[in-house]
């Protein structure tokens, strides 16, 4: 998924609670960037068979870092954080879990 807003990228690997790749998991991120955070970018992509998804074209400076990548599949959810100012080219894992009481997908 290319955001077209900058030079940074974040590769995510999503896993089920038992450690298997979570193919077809949904991953979302909302990005506010630019002067005063006036520019906004909502990205959403699904993982491949191996549970991986790559977000490219992310801005190097964002308002209120870190970015939060929210992953979900079936009844499981997970989050990974990423600050492009600290690591412009990142790789993170997300292990999905049952949501806490009151938390929704």
Textual characterization of the structure:
The protein contains no helices and 7 strands. The protein has strands at 8-15, 26-33, 39-46, 52-58, 67-73, 76-82, 89-95. The radius of gyration is 14 Å and the shape is globular. By secondary structure, the protein is mostly beta strands. The chain has a single domain (8-95), classed as Carboxypeptidase-like, regulatory domain (Immunoglobulin-like), CATH 2.60.40.
Count of distinct structural domains = 1
What gyration radius follows from the Cα positions, in whole Å? Answer: 14 Å
Beta-strand residue fraction: over 45%
How does CATH name the architecture?
Answer: Sandwich
CATH superfamily: Carboxypeptidase-like, regulatory domain
Task: Please write the CATH class name.
Answer: Mainly Beta
Characteristic terms for this protein:
three-stranded mixed sheet, four-stranded antiparallel sheet, 105 residues, mainly beta, Immunoglobulin-like
Concise overview:
The protein is an all-beta fold. The chain contains no helices and 7 strands. It has one domain (8-95): Carboxypeptidase-like, regulatory domain (Immunoglobulin-like, Sandwich), CATH 2.60.40.1120.
SSE blueprint:
Layout: E1 8-15, E2 26-33, E3 39-46, E4 52-58, E5 67-73, E6 76-82, E7 89-95
Parallel strand pairs: 1-7
Antiparallel strand pairs: 1-4, 2-3, 2-5, 5-6
